[in-house]
Amino acid sequence: MNKPFVVLRMDLLSRKLFPKEDLFRLVLKDSVLVFEKEQNPCGRGIYLRKDKETLALAKKKGILKRYAKNSDLDALFQELEDDCSR
Questions:
Q1: Residue 8's pLDDT is what?
Q2: How many other CB atoms are there within 10 angstroms of residue 70's CB atom?
Q3: Which residue, 11, 6, 67, 81, is CA-closest to 34?
């Protein structure tokens, strides 16, 4: 019997592969980094795991500053943490 196909994406922080459903997708739109809730395929995205430890470590290391030159990262992290707790 064939196993179901699982889409894998790489977590930006750990550089490991995870199922797409377990990751947040962030996309650069109009020079602003935004959280893509629907995970539509417009543009290239970066992925972070959906857990509070990963978000805290990404915030501490400042890993998104390279991608988000014109973005409000505090608001973005707050939106990700709110979605993570649901």
A1: 94
A2: 9
A3: 67
Q: Quick one: pLDDT at residue 39? A: 66
CB atoms within 10 A of CB 17: 13
State both tokens at 60: 């501490």
Which of 3, 54, 53, 4 has its CA nearest to residue 26?
A: 54
Concatenating the DSSP letter of every residue in 15-56 gives --EEEGGGEEEEEEETTEEEE-SS---SS-EEEEESSHHHHH
pLDDT in tens, 7-22: 999 999 999 999 999 9
Q: Which residue matches tokens 């707790």?
A: 85
Model pTM score: 0.82
3 state SS of 85: coil
> Count of alpha carbons within 13 Å of 18, Cβ hemisphere only?
19
